[in-house]
Amino acid sequence: MSMALSELSRRALSDLSGVFAALPDTAADPLIDAIASARRIALYGAGREGLALRGFAMRLFHMGRDAHVVADMTTPPIGKGDLMIVTAGQGWLPTAETFMTIAKEAGATTAIITSQPDGQASQMADIRVVIPAQTMANDIGATVSVLPMGSLFEIAETIFFELVVLKLRERFGETAETMRERHTNLE
What we know:
- The N and C termini lie far apart (44 Å).
- The radius of gyration is 17 Å and the shape is globular.
- The protein has helices at residues 5-22, 29-37, 47-62, 94-105, 120-124, 151-172, 176-180; strands at residues 41-44, 67-69, 83-87, 109-114, 127-130.
- The chain has a five-stranded parallel β-sheet with strand order 2-1-3-4-5, with helices on both faces.
- The chain has a single domain, classed as 3-Layer(aba) Sandwich (Rossmann fold).
- The chain is of the alpha/beta class.
């Protein structure tokens, strides 16, 4: 028997609410401090996590930060004073690990957004933000989210990035209007 859309949405929102109820109020602070002090910010993620990270990179740009998505043709080199942010919900991602190694060797600080703090990529990062949400690493069992596979983490990560933007906006003295001034007019 199929569930009604209203019931599915209630369960999905309840799952998301549970993630943020378990997230400490200070969870974003080290990331926010690193972003605020970074000369340049490079961001990398794959799949749906990468899409969330691209949206975050765009908002960082809208706040006047020198932010770039790794693998875009205009991404500059990374080095001392820079910040490399990766997302690896499952705690490991070979490409993220490679980019973090390159960033560290160049003198940059590394940060990871993950659900699995004990994963290999998680252990490599200087800054770890742990979003306590289901990923494909733990999507089997009796207490899984109504959302499939890693969707709970990916959606929670998107919301988390928007919350970080709100905190950064306040810190940088930005407003919706000042951010809008940096929005593209080529749409």
